Amino acid sequence: MKSDKNIVLIGFMGTGKSTVGKILAKKMNRALVDIDHRIEEREKRKIYEIFEKEGEEYFRRLEKEMIRDTSSHSGQVITTGGGAVMDAENLAALKSNGFLVALSASPETIYQRVKDTRHRPLLKSPDLMAEIRRLLEVRTPVYKKADLCFASDGRSGAQVADQILEALEKEEEFEFGKDWF
Ligand code: S3P
User: Which residue of 6, 28, 66, 174 has the fewest C-beta atoms within 10 A of its own C-beta?
Assistant: First the structure.
């Protein structure tokens, strides 16, 4: 890909953003910036600890700051937490210098992927499936604002990454075409 714009992976928890992001960054020879990981490094504690001790609002402030800082650089693959783009300013900052790629998966797939994880503070409800469905309903319209959307059900991270790369190349050709005619 010739463009220096960031590639930004968005989407619900358990859709494969981190796995796909790592593969994409390697294949594109780009730096990988995982927003949550950067926050954990800066805060020297885990996301669930930040949620537990300071609450979600505090975490969202850190997330916003990190997204603002990260968006000011180009040529990166950025992976975001599932709630990051629910904030309009975050979405705009990421879009201003990036190509947004949304990953999706069915509630059943997400359930299977997240049911045994303990580090996700938003998935603590006794009825996990209902909580996934509730959050997905609110969030899906925002994820759909991405430039490209891919379902990760039944696909490996490498397969999804290859699909994204192929689509990005095509997208770029199309963009060039638009300049010429
Ligand atoms: C969140 C998703 C998490 C993390 C935090 C909040 C969310 O990231 O940012 O727990 O609001 O969906 P992943 O999507 O990587 O699990």
Answer: 174
Where along the chain do its domains lie? 6-170
**How does pLDDT run across 101-118, given as a tens digit for each residue?**
999 999 999 999 999 988
In short, whether 16's Cβ falls inside 6 Å of ligand 1 is no
DSSP assignment of the chain, as one string?
----PEEEEEE-TTSSHHHHHHHHHHHHT-EEEEHHHHHHHHHTS-HHHHHHHH-HHHHHHHHHHHHHHHHTS-SEEEE--TTGGGSHHHHHHHHHTEEEEEEE--HHHHHHHHTT-S--TT---SSHHHHHHHHHHHHHHHHTTSSEEEE-TT--HHHHHHHHHHHHHHHHHHHHHHHH-
Nearest-atom number in ligand 1 for the CA of 79 is 15
* pTM for the predicted model, two decimal places: 0.95
Question: Does the domain made of 6-170 have the CATH classification 3.40.50.300?
Answer: yes
